[in-house]
Specification:
alpha+beta, nine-stranded mixed sheet, five-stranded mixed sheet, 22% strand
Amino acid sequence: MPIRQLSETMINQIAAGEVIERPASVVKELVENALDAGASRVEIVTAGGGLNLIRVTDDGSGIPKRELALAIARHCTSKLSDDIHDIRSLGFRGEALPSIGSVARLSIRSRTAHGDSAAEIGIEGGRVSAVKPAAANRGTTVEVRDLFFATPARLKFMKGERAESSATSDVVKRIAIAFPAVRFTLAGSDRSTLELPATDDSAEGRLQRVAQVMGADFPDNAIAIDASREGVHLAGHVSIPSFTRANALQQYAYVNGRPVRDKLIAGAIRGAFADVLPRDRHAVTVLFLTLDPATVDVNVHPAKADVRFRDPGLVRGLIVGAIREALAGAGIRAATTGAAGMTAAFRPGAAPFGHGGPANGHRSYEAAYRASGFAGFEHSQQRPLDIGYGDGRPQRAGFGENEQAAFDAGPLASADARAGAAEPAETLLGTVLGAARAQVHENYIVAQTRDSLVIVDQHAAHERLVYEALKNALHSRAVPSQMLLLPEIVDLPEEDAERLAMHSETLARFGLGVERFGPGAVAVRETPSMLGETNVQQLVRDLADEIADNDTVETLKERLHNIAATMACHGSVRSGRLLKPEEMNALLRQMEATPGSGTCNHGRPTYIELKLADIERLFGRR
């Protein structure tokens, strides 16, 4: 087949294959155009999952009538200067509108602030109609109907209506977090209405917008991030280690206000939480990176979903360092969702023996109480309190001294150890974890604060304390190494060997002695003693891969930390050990002084806090 010039329609359809993946992609491009136009209100309407209809209306600056034809032409944009490296807007390619118009029925109706009237232009399957007058308020309305009607093969790859609607919602929420001062509305016959009222662009306003998108639980379980390094600023919020999700969908990252899904940022978040989360759990994060546009390339993906940093090591180090510093500075905190789960587990129901009726006559318990069969128990021969009828009226005989003595004869059955009969010191009640009152089931410490009840898993808590102590010992001095009888020669590509040689000093600090051994090889003369017998070849290759990806040697640190975690697990207080009152209180004080002690090495919570108000609700007092 001879070489030929493709038609303009074919070129646009090819571009649409890169930019317009699904209806959510259309919504993303149109909402970004609205925000670039300075809109303070963006309304989105969809039908059929976005395949039948997408309408985006904004109150931005609008498009002049004379520029409407250019707006739907390829590579025409008002957002790009002569410097491709100075991109300060969300869009800049000038491909979205012509690409959409080549595979759908597109109409644009717009009016500027100083315009006497609006104008409208349409494009259907690549065929452009003439500009005509229209009636509209200030701003722009873009309507897309019958998406992919011109390329029906693409419809076979679309998911169900519900899945497409969900993807559109996710796109709108992701963009909305970065623009708290803009009001967003997403509605349509295929969805429930999503409304995100405008707040303001302050830190508090951003957190309010995050709460609108992610739920009210997140602000209560979040830690603020604010750090800078060499011209790169990081701000936002991350969840405390005990507040997690089963996937990473609620990890939001923004670079100069642009939503991105970047592997480097995701890896940095995972690395920052590596010590405090299990492998199958993910932190909830909202992070904003601000840096000079010249130091980040956003022109590496047609949909602008990925970015490339000039100094990826700097960005990764900033994210990991800032998050770890924030976690350490936040002290010990329990997720509020833990108390909610605990409250649900303690839902009032029929008591196993001798229930005397619904607590305080609370109506919500009345039906369940009567249905349980205990309603007739009050007249049973086995009732715990005798009721006399000496004067014709029911009278309670009260607790007899002999009967009560049976309750006082021995220790409470639910407690293995009591933390002293005396009232706890007022200073202990004012601490985060309070004063130890009892040990139950030989594993759980029950403590009291001024306004809550705290239950601590003694093994998990002490495991974290021992682990942190071992880590501090690792980082405070060089890791002991063992000399190999014969050096291990590892063959590598020349560039990998060079990278390892450049990091040899850092590796030596962790007990791994590496040096060049001719072209394309390194010689390993020492390995960390903690590793014992290890596969040196695999370890060196893993390090080389990590240095190539992230310019770090985290693999070796992770292996050492994993060994420290195993040692901590075996060297900590075991379940089943009875603790003295002073030992329990000492453990609580150490937890308060140790960063990250809210979770154990495996990511499980070390304690749960139940507020007094929650306890009172359980008993119908509130």
